[in-house]
Amino acid sequence: MRVYAEKLPETLNRSLAPLYLVLGNEPLLIQESRIAIEHKARELGFEEKHQFTADTSLDWNDVYDRCQSMSLFSQRQLIEIDIPESGINAAMGKTLGTLAQSLSPDVLLVIVGNKLTKAQENSAWFKELSTQGCWVNCLTPDLSRLPQFVTKRCQLLGLKPDAEAVQMLAQWHEGNLFALAQSLEKLTLLYPDGRLTLVRLEESLSRHNHFTAFHWVDALLEGKANRAQRILRQLASEEIETIILIRTIQKELFQLLSMRQAMNTQPINLIFEQYRVWQNKRPLYSAALQRLSLNKLQHLLQTLAQAELLVKTQYSQPIWPLLQQLSVEFCLPEANLPLPN
């Protein structure tokens, strides 16, 4: 069974599954899902909790022993397995499938990890796990879904925003749902009647999305020009050091250039393995490599070199317009360049 994180509390009120797969790219939704499952489990007598990380040092025998224990001589247990950033490979997936089959009725298994690739979602081990339990989808809502997400969060807190307030909250907090949750909690205290208008928001909340250089890089890789410019404006307003941005994007450009050159002789999946690109980042790099030719990448590096020269020598000349130019050019589509199979 698949359920979105926002709907998990309703599902838990109906019944508790023997297995939960809490997977996605949104830390707030992952954290809230974990807490909700644990609270419900405690209500039903799962008093003991054991947490494991599925890295190379994990002794899976310890996990098997826990999952097969009965409550005759011990408390009912919640077993939580954290999947590392590198994700779930086929061997680990098979192990998790075998583990799920060995669960005793007094053990609740919760697996927490990053968003899966399409190939992983279609794998036999994942289909088996999601059939046995509940797959909690913890994906960050995109900008088109964010207003709906904001409205739902407001309803849960008894807040009544008008349409303009919803749009403003979505724009201010795009990319940082933790900040959104904190802002809404603050608003419940400031306005007991729950009414939220544009005027009230401007009086109570500051325009700090807390974007980072990495949010900017991800937007550039995806080719999302408007989002990249919005993040860049926010970073400029927070007076982030431009050299941090230059160094961050410089590393990505050099890597993209090397990967693009390697594509002449190697398949893209092998290149991703060679550069240790995480599974959840591969779609971003694929999009960039399809969009950017060798000549375009070299041109972007030249633009970046100009920006670095300005930072180091022309202290009075603003650097932000050049970074904005680089953002636009990075996202501009070229003729589609097919990736090798």
Automatic annotation (TrEMBL):
Q: Which residues does the UniProt record annotate as the domain DNA polymerase III subunit delta C-terminal?
A: 214-331
InterPro entries in the record: DNA_pol3_clamp-load_cplx_C, DNA_pol3_delt_C, DNA_pol3_delta_N, DNA_polIII_delta, P-loop_NTPase
User: Where is the DNA polymerase III delta N-terminal domain positioned along the sequence?
Assistant: 20-138
Chemical reaction(s) catalysed:
DNA(n) + a 2'-deoxyribonucleoside 5'-triphosphate = DNA(n+1) + diphosphate
Indicate whether Transferase appears among the record's keywords. yes
Q: Which of UniProt's keywords are assigned here?
A: DNA replication, DNA-directed DNA polymerase, Nucleotidyltransferase, Transferase
What is one GO cellular-component annotation here? DNA polymerase III complex
Mention any Pfam family matching this sequence.
Answer: DNA_pol3_delt_C
Coiled coil (UniProt feature): none
GO molecular function per UniProt:
DNA binding; DNA-directed DNA polymerase activity
Report which superkingdom the organism of origin falls in: Bacteria
EC number(s) from the headed UniProt entry: 2.7.7.7
Q: Which family does it belong to?
A: Belongs to the DNA polymerase HolA subunit family.
What name appears for this protein in its UniProt entry?
A: DNA polymerase III subunit delta
Q: What is the scientific name of the source organism?
A: Vibrio cincinnatiensis DSM 19608
